[in-house]
Structures are given as C-alpha cells and as structure tokens.
# Entry
Amino acid sequence: MDASQAIRAVELVRRIRDELATELVGRSREQLLAFFRQAGDAALAEAKARRAHAPAEPTDRQGDGRPARPA
# Structure
C-alpha cells in the first residue's frame, strides 16, 4: 500500500468515527453496546453469506503462500 492509499484510509476511518460519534451522542452505555453488537452481528452474517457463495479456491499445497499447482 502506498502512502496516498494509507492517508485516504485514515481519512475514511476518521470520517466514519465522526459520523458515529454524532449519531451516538447522548446514548447510555447499554444502548451503545447494543448498537455495536447489532452492527457486529450484521457484519458477521454478511461475511458468512459471502463465504458460503464464494467459489472454492485451490489449496496452498506448498505452504508458502503460492497458489496451488494444477493437478
């Protein structure tokens, strides 16, 4: 990742943080926990759904990160 991509990523995270801070101001601790628990559960469900529909990738037979050799 080059420096310009890293800077854009940081700016994106800061923008998300600021938007959430504005949205969540004044909520109780329990409400905050419920909000983040719900968001985490939704993200986990989406990741599982994507994994279930993703095409299978060949295994890494060499153990060194290189793609598997054709059979």
The two ends are 33 Å apart (CA to CA). The mean pLDDT is 84. Helices lie at 3-24, 29-53.
